[in-house]
Design brief:
This protein is of the alpha/beta class. About 45% of the residues lie in helices and about 15% in strands. The two termini are about 20 Å apart.
């Protein structure tokens, strides 16, 4: 693990490009000394005495960045003294004009000035550019947050909807970590009792009553299972609720995707089997992210690549929360078979929207077709199915409005179930929970078949380590480097 007495670091905390204000962040034991060397408080500034080092923490100070006698920019600066800063180290933030020249110049001044101060032994460590996520990594290493909270920072930055923002905030404030620590503490207590038995193995003493031990393990197993099971919904919130657009060939699936995302994402062609692979795009509807997936048309075929595409269609259908079945109203005889094929693959909790396309070409009233589709659904025991009879080509806005309305209804029910719950959104956390789940299952099975105490202790320790790896109680440099490499520079 990286030493806490490492180099001072600097990086822009705002995205590159022209703007009104840019922020440069410096952190490390000598951050305030380095920044003070290039910052001159403005005369008459009541919040300063002589230098930046003498200013109060958490207060903005107006002044100038200079190179010798040359003025680079008029800026605001704020200092944060350890341990009361984001990283737990001394830190400085400089708010300047967001010119790329000014931002680069100030960073070069800081680096060059620090190099001189280090040579003169005025500061204890050199200054270098920060690596991606290094400020948050230092916050973790300095005990300002645990690993799950640190990862939630990246999720918070990437959040695009209210739901994803809410989950990230809950995790960053320690809601998820609190549950994990409570379970890990219980497992550690169990480990202590079981290992105590090993110390007195020759005396045949049982410190952990097996019935009581099983009851505690069942309770922990249930909580872990609830958390790991929340990953599907948590992932949907983070990456978009998955909506599979399925149906027979040439029913208008690709046209529907293009309509919903507002651009020509999929090739539309009268040639059957044009879509061979899935095409995905995200759309924010009323504050909720939906991930639309256009799939290969379902039909009997011997063409190898098309068969692979159809297999992926069934896989995406299985993974989705919402299924939009697109049918051709002019080929009424294909609607029931399509519904039957979906029924065989669909889970009960998946919302089903049936879109009968090309209704502008019907001779009979649309209501008659809508009623017939509902009768098909009743026959197949499909409940809560929405039926939309339309023309994706000639009634574009009406079609989009009707489908978005159905998605909004689903979204309200989906979000109402999220209140007050903790959700797992990180694949690493999910895998660690599943590993802990397996270890606990082995312990419970071992108790049933009266396995030796040392084998029970081994699996208990493994479950404890798995939970600890999520919050960083047990971690390696390789894991930390991988996690923080996905952060943005300056965070």
């Amino acid at each position: 693990m990286e030493s806490l007495n490492s180099a001072n670091i600097v990086a822009p905390a705002t995205v590159p490009g022209t703007g009104a204000v840019g922020i440069i962040r410096v952190s490390g034991a000598d951050a305030i000394t380095i920044a003070s060397a290039i910052f001159k408080p403005a005369k008459g500034n009541r919040s300063t005495k002589a230098t930046l080092k003498n200013t109060d923490s958490y207060k903005l100070t107006f002044g100038r960045i200079t190179e010798g006698e040359k003025l680079i920019d008029e800026v605001l600066a704020a200092i944060f003294r350890a341990p009361n800063s984001y990283t737990g180290e001394n830190a400085v933030e400089i708010y300047c004009h967001a010119s790329s020249f000014i931002m680069n110049k100030i960073q070069m001044l800081l680096l060059n000035t620090a190099s001189k101060l280090f040579k003169d032994k005025t500061i204890s460590a050199p200054l270098r550019m920060a690596e991606p996520g290094e400020f948050t990594k230092r916050a973790f290493l300095n005990g300002k947050m645990d690993l799950a909270q640190a990862e939630a920072v990246a999720d918070l930055i990437a959040s695009e909807t209210e739901a994803s923002h809410s989950i990230a905030m809950n995790q960053m404030r320690g809601g998820f970590s609190k549950e994990l620590r409570a379970m890990r503490e219980s497992l550690l207590n169990l480990c202590a009792l079981v290992e105590l038995e090993l110390d007195f193995s020759e005396e045949d003493v049982e410190f952990a009553d097996r019935k009581h031990l099983t009851a505690l393990l069942e309770n922990i197993h249930k909580k872990i299972n609830e958390l790991s099971s929340s990953f599907a919904d948590g992932n949907a919130i983070k990456n978009g609720i998955p909506v599979a657009i399925v149906g027979a060939v040439n029913t208008g699936k690709s046209s529907l995707l293009n309509l919903l995302v507002g651009e020509e994402r999929a090739i539309v062609s009268p040639i059957q089997g044009t879509t061979r692979d899935t095409i995905e795009d995200n759309v924010n509807i009323a504050g909720t992210l939906f991930r639309f997936i256009d799939t290969a048309g379902i039909r009997n075929t011997t063409e190898t690549i098309e068969m692979m595409g159809i297999e992926r269609t069934w896989q995406k259908l299985k993974e989705s929360s919402v299924i939009i079945l697109v049918t051709d109203a002019t080929r009424e005889n294909t609607i029931l078979p399509s519904l039957k094929s979906i029924t065989e693959k669909r889970r009960k909790e998946q919302k089903l929207i049936v879109v009968a396309n090309k209704c502008d070409m019907l001779v009979s009233p649309r209501k008659a077709l809508e009623q017939k589709i509902k009768e098909y659904c009743k026959k197949l025991k499909l409940t809560g199915v929405a039926v939309i009879c339309t023309s994706l080509k000639k009634e574009r806005e009406e079609s989009k409005k009707s489908i978005n309305h159905q998605l909004s209804l689903y979204e309200k029910g989906f979000l109402s179930n999220l209140q007050g719950k903790t959700y797992v959104t990180n694949l690493r956390h999910y895998q660690a929970l599943k590993d802990a789940e397996v270890s606990i299952e082995r312990v419970m099975e071992g108790i049933t078949i009266n396995l030796p105490t040392d084998l029970l202790a081994q699996d208990l320790r493994q479950a404890t380590d798995d939970l600890g790896s999520i919050i960083g109680e047990i971690s390696s440099q390789e894991i930390l480097s991988h996690i923080f490499s996905h952060f943005c520079i300056g965070k």
